[in-house]
């Protein structure tokens, strides 16, 4: 079923339909979608955002975050045609659970990301690791909540990290940016989103270019709402169905992360539960068909980042803590948002 969202943009665009339209004539196939006049969702067409070409930037918090939009990446990048990839952290957060040192575990994660890129069609020269420690990031978030000198030092720490992200974005000189959604599921997803918005806002002011930001939902409510915007999300919501080749590349990216297979298996169990409820509603779905659809949307440039996406604080970053201290939006992420976007 195809239907227009509140911005009047089709939520579902089959690659078969797009391919058929592109074959109408050589002249039509050569015409590139018009550039958007502004970064507002109503001005940014899916055809332009997902085109193979230009200077797309894909920026993530963690190695494996790209699995969320692997099909979109494969469609845009193709055979190493374009794209810059930036990872903010080095992925060392789970090291204490593995017996590896944080540095050794980080090297594993960064090497896995390089292999994932290769499987998507992008070569290593397109990759940049900013190598920020997840462990340190979490520690600093607890310091933000602690107040006093610890808070001030932690806020300075995140401003320095934001400046590092800004330098990487400036070097990429993107015409559009893809990242994970602002959704209160993982604090580092939201911090990466915040730092990217800060840098893109500055570039827009300096250059006058729109530089749309396209977000893709990872998860919230632990992983009960995975790879989809929640039902009451009122922002720009679009979706694509992946081709067989894109699905195969996406599955290959999952397989590029041996260190994360336990997490992926847990995700598949959640999808199977979702499938049972869908079947009861007359909409049966399995893991492969669920993964064959990717949701995305253009970020509203007026979005208020001092407000959580959840009305109840307890729904933010569920079960996430650092050394027993609960990770919160109101006392940790909001103050960082305020210092980054309203210094």
Describe the secondary-structure layout:
Blueprint lengths: L11 E2 L1 H8 L3 H5 L15 H4 L6 E5 L9 H8 L6 E6 L5 H4 L3 H19 L6 E6 L1 H13 L1 H25 L3 E5 L6 H21 L5 E4 L2 E2 L4 E2 L11 E4 L2 H12 L5 H20 L6 H5 L1 E6 L22 E2 L2 E2 L2 H13 L2
Parallel strand pairs: 1-9, 2-3, 2-5, 3-4, 5-6
Antiparallel strand pairs: 6-10, 7-8, 9-10, 11-12
Low-confidence residue ranges: 1-29
Q: Round the mean pLDDT to the nearest integer and report it.
A: 90
Spell out the helices and strands N to C: EHHHEHEHHEHHEHEEEEHHHEEEH
CATH class: Alpha Beta
The rounded Rg comes to 20 Å
CATH architecture: 3-Layer(aba) Sandwich
Main β-sheet, spatial strand arrangement? 1-9-10-6-5-2-3-4
Short recap of the structure:
With 343 residues, the chain is α/β, with parallel strands linked by helices.
Description:
The structure is a single chain. The chain contains 13 helices and twelve strands. Residues 1-29 have low confidence and may be disordered. It is an alpha/beta fold and 343 residues long. Helix content is 46%, strand content 13%. An eight-stranded mixed β-sheet has the order 1-9-10-6-5-2-3-4, with helices on both faces. The protein has a two-stranded antiparallel ribbon with strand order 7-8. Strands 11-12 form a two-stranded antiparallel sheet. The chain is globular. 39% of the residues are buried. The protein has helices spanning 15-22, 26-30, 46-49, 70-77, 95-98, 102-120, 134-146, 148-172, 187-207, 244-255, 261-280, 287-291, 329-341; strands spanning 12-13, 56-60, 84-89, 127-132, 176-180, 213-216, 219-220, 225-226, 238-241, 293-298, 321-322, 325-326. The chain has one domain: 3-Layer(aba) Sandwich (Rossmann fold). It starts with 11 loop residues before the first strand and ends with a helix.
């Amino acid at each position: 079923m195809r239907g227009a969202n509140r911005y009047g943009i089709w939520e579902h665009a089959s690659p078969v339909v797009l391919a058929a339209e592109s074959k109408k004539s050589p002249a039509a196939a050569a015409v590139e979608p018009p550039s958007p006049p502004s970064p507002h969702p109503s001005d940014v067409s899916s055809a332009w955002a997902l085109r193979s070409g230009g200077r797309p930037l894909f920026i993530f918090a963690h190695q494996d975050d790209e699995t969320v939009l692997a099909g979109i990446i494969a469609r845009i990048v193709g055979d190493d045609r374009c794209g810059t990839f930036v990872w903010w952290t080095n992925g060392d957060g789970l090291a204490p659970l593995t017996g590896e040192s944080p540095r050794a575990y980080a090297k594993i994660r960064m090497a896995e990301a390089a292999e994932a890129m290769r499987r998507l069609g992008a070569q290593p020269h397109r990759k940049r690791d900013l190598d920020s420690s997840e462990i340190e990031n979490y520690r600093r978030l607890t310091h933000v909540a602690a107040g006093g000198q610890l808070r001030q030092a932690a806020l300075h720490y995140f401003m320095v990290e934001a400046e590092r992200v800004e330098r990487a974005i400036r070097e990429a000189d993107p015409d559009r940016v893809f990242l994970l959604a602002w959704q209160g599921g993982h604090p580092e997803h939201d911090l990466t989103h915040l730092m990217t918005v800060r840098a893109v806002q500055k570039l827009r002011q300096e250059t006058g270019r729109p530089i749309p930001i396209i977000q893709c939902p990872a998860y919230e409510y632990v992983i009960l709402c995975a790879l989809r915007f929640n039902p009451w999300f009122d922002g720009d919501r679009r979706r694509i169905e992946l081709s067989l080749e894109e699905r195969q590349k996406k599955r290959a990216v999952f397989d590029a992360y041996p260190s994360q297979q336990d997490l992926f298996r847990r995700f598949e169990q959640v999808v199977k539960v979702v499938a049972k409820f869908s079947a009861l509603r007359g909409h049966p779905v399995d893991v492969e068909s669920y993964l064959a659809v990717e949701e995305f949307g253009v970020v509203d440039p007026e979005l208020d980042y001092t407000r959580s996406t959840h009305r109840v604080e307890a729904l933010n970053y569920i079960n996430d803590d650092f050394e027993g201290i609960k990770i919160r939006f109101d006392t940790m992420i909001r103050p960082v948002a305020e210092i980054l976007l309203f210094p």
